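Sorry to interrupt, but I need a hand with the structure work. Go ahead and set the record down below:
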Amino acid sequence: MDFQQLADVAEKWCSNTPFELIATEETERRMDFYADPGVSFYVLCPDNGCGDNFHVWSESEDCLPFLQLAQDYISSCGKKTLHEVLEKVFKSFRPLLGLPDTDDDAFEEYSADVEEEGPEADHPQMGKDDVKIQRKKAM
């Protein structure tokens, strides 16, 4: 996707969030975002033919720790779209923006169900610790 298409995706995303796309730099493939009260970050977009991932960062020391969730997400397996990256950044910044944290109730219920099962249910030949490790890998 060329940089202008990415900028269009970012503009559309901003229309549904408190963030504004305040600057784009095509040669650096950089987009800067800002939302009140002083929440800012930027995204470096990979080149078309390059295998690199997106990169998110903030020059604000107040914002930087909140980006850890998004940075971990980007570095995890699989290619991410700009929209997916921006959504993860938005979720990361919700506390700074004074927004309620999104609930992951469905995940918690699923985890509770898995933990309630006995280890013998799926793999009677494995020990309890082996089953836990296998289930964590599956998630």
Notes: The chain has a mean pLDDT of 80.
